Amino acid sequence: MKHFICVFCFWLLTSISAAYAQTGWVQQTVAAPGIDFYSVHFRNASLGLAVGTNGTIMKTTNGGIVWVPKLSLTTNTLYSVKWSNNDNDAIAVGQGGIVLKTTNAVELWTSQTFSNTLYSLYYSGTFGYAVGANGTILATTNGGANWTALTSGTTESLNCISMALDNYGLVAGAVGVIRKTIEGIAWTGLPSGTASDLKGVTFPYFNTGWACGSAGTILKTTDAGLNWARQNVTSGVLNSIHLGAFDKLWTVGNAGKIMNSTNAGTNWIDQTSPVTTNLNCVYMVDATTGYIAGASGIILKTVNGGVGVRTISSEVPGEFKLFSNYPNPFNPITKIKFNVPKSEIISLKIYDINGKLVEELFNNNFSAGSYEAEWNAKNFASGIYFNKVESASFSDTKRMMLVK
User: What gap in Å lies between CA 152 and CA 181, rounded to an integer?
Assistant: First the structure.
């Protein structure tokens, strides 16, 4: 028996270590076969919830290492879940106008039902909004005990909501509909410049926000929604968009699509996805740690911003070193190897022939060891580029040639 326990403990520690040694987006072990997840939200780096079809509610208290199914009061699909500002209080909404609320860390839920299916939710602990079919906007000012229907000014489906403040934010939905409130009650229409269905919106700042949707739509505003600029960087359906920190954004969509911008949406790059199923929601805890929820029980996690950096060796090298990329010339993927002799924050940036920064692959803390990063230049033109690895104590640059 003791031998079995020792073997099991060794396996568990090895599995956990392996999970955290991997980089990029890594699939989590979730016992939810056949469940499509539509929303994931984390209170902090450890405490998270995911919801989906059949009223499924999953909870983790250790950063996604283990997900535990929790009792639900419904078999309706749940489309959105949000923690409040404490570890006990959360709300979930979904199909058939269901609204679930817990005040005891997801152990018990209370239920309310409204007329229309609800697709998205904002909740801060006291104030909250739920939006959905037929232009529905519900509001609460007492932590979800009571909800009041607000006039949205549209009958189109409202698919997503993001609030910069409790009474200041945006909703977006079908055929490019965007509505804005500046005091939490009245909602006015804004011209989006698109007829695409908008699936996701993030409005973290007073003036700046982003939206995504069908036909590869990514929109950005810098004047509080009065004008929106479209960025034509992809095709297909994008279901969710989220700001991790400062100017770092992620968006996800159908067929396993994951994209990242490190310059506030000016440029977007594809990140390697371990799945081809539809991805419905992305939530970044910070600039490096994040989660994605999708179809077929998929939950993905990254601890390095989704960048595909592989640990070659944990042996401590004698010095910092940047190696020449391989292959070189390349089209469109090349690998960049570097040695790190001590724990330090390392950045890897790509510059064009004119010295203009075109992409930052990462800016993270690395332990001593040897690493290999991958740059996918499929969105860049042929030409000379430079990769630069830099830390507080080291800097080196290598020349690369992209030939298409």
Answer: 10
Mean pLDDT of 6-14: 36
- At 110 the pLDDT is 96
Residue 187 has pLDDT above 80, yes or no: yes
Report pLDDT for 383.
97
pLDDT tens digits, one per residue of 265-282: 988 888 889 999 999 999
Expressed in percent and rounded to 5, the helix, strand and coil fractions of the chain are 10, 45, 45
**Per-residue b/e over 327-358, b at no fewer than 16 CB within 10 Å?**
eeebeeebbbbbbbeeeeebebbbbbeeeeeb
Q: Which amino acid does the sequence have at 159? A: N
> In a 10 Å sphere around its CB, with 0-12 CB exposed, 13-18 middle and 19+ buried, how is residue 168 labelled?
middle
For 193, list phi and psi in degrees, rounded to 5: 80, 10
Q: How confident is the model at residue 23 (pLDDT cuts 50, 70, 90)?
A: low
- Please give the model's pTM, rounded to 2 decimal places: 0.82
Instruction: Please give the structure tokens belonging to residue 8.
Output: 């099991």
Q: Which regions of 1-64 does DSSP assign to beta strands (E)?
A: 26-27, 37-42, 48-52, 57-60
Q: What value, to the nearest 5°, has the Cα angle with vertex 303 and ends 290 and 339?
A: 150
For residue 327, cis peptide bond before it (omega within 30 degrees of 0):
yes
For the chain, what is the radius of gyration of the CA atoms? 22
With contact defined as beta carbons under 8 Å apart, do 145 and 111 qualify?
no
Three-state SS at 203: coil
Q: Residue 215 gets which letter from DSSP?
A: G
Is 17 in a helix, a strand, or coil? helix
